[in-house]
Amino acid sequence: MKPVIFDVDTGIDDALAIAYALSSPELELLGFTTCFGNVPVQEATRNTLAVLEMVEKDVPVYEGASQTFKRGMKPQWARLVHGKDGLGNVLKAEPLKRAASGSAEDFMIKQVKERPNEITIIAVGPLTNVARAINKAPEIIPLIKNVVIMGGAVNVSGNVTPYGEANIVADPEAADCVFSSGLSVTLVGLDVTMETLLPLAKMDEWRDVHSKTAHFFADMTEHYIGAYESFYPGIGGCALHDPLAVGVVIDPSFVRTRLMNISVITDGEEVGNTVGNKEGETKIHVCTEVEASRFLDHFLDRMSKVMHS
Ligand code: BDR
Ligand code: CA
User: Fold this and answer.
1) What is the mean pLDDT of residues 156-174?
2) pTM of the model as a whole
3) Ligand 1 centre distance from Cα of residue 8 (Å)
4) Where does the sequence pass through the membrane (predicted)?
5) Could you identify which of 39, 77, 85, 192 might form a hypothetical disulfide with 91, taking C-beta atoms 3.0 to 4.6 angstroms apart as the criterion?
């Protein structure tokens, strides 16, 4: 089992990624850490706890950053895409459990020191918590096995601006800190995630299971697909951004990668642009191709386990 810390800003694709990770025996989930992003951090924490409650798993959740790493930039929530509650408006009640005590960054630092060279961090929101952890304790940088990041758009256009992808645009200085730190990184950007489309037709198949969990995930995902249709008319589905980052940890052969240095534009019109450069030393593996249908089958198989249990 691969020990994992999962950093999330729980909107809808984060929720799918959480369920996928929790139903995958290859992963040992040590804890979730939350960040502002799709929603304010308190809501990301609540949504993470709500998903855990829905799938009946007990993993600690540590609340993290409520604002950006350096400049205290005003965050832009993604309620149009992820709904008023960040989960496609499916939340009916507050989760019973609360976040664990302690901060996200301290949890990361402690776990990495306890298990040097073992832990993979999967980060699918703005990179603020990771940046804070390595800024506070730079000695952990060589002790983290790998950071698998959903973020960026290297050879393709962005999704919130022509250049920028949402997680990087939300905190470009945190991203810059992470990419220039010497950390071992796998970058799962829009270059590959936009090829992983979950079709609308699957939602009825999910509902046919007739479990509470199936309806929870089908209803929220249908909201997400609706948002995709409004932004990309005729697309017929939604991109599985955050689940693909989990998939790459479970089975790295879902993607092909290329070693590149990544610099992040932190200001101006191109803010959040992740610029790839093949020169010089680097430990950043940029995903350039994905076996989308094999990944989708794997994701659907694991989701079906979640819905039938
Ligand atoms: C990323 O932005 C968020 O809205 C999603 O959860 C995903 O992590 C896609 O650009
Ligand atoms: Ca996310």
Assistant:
1) 97
2) 0.97
3) 10
4) none
5) 85
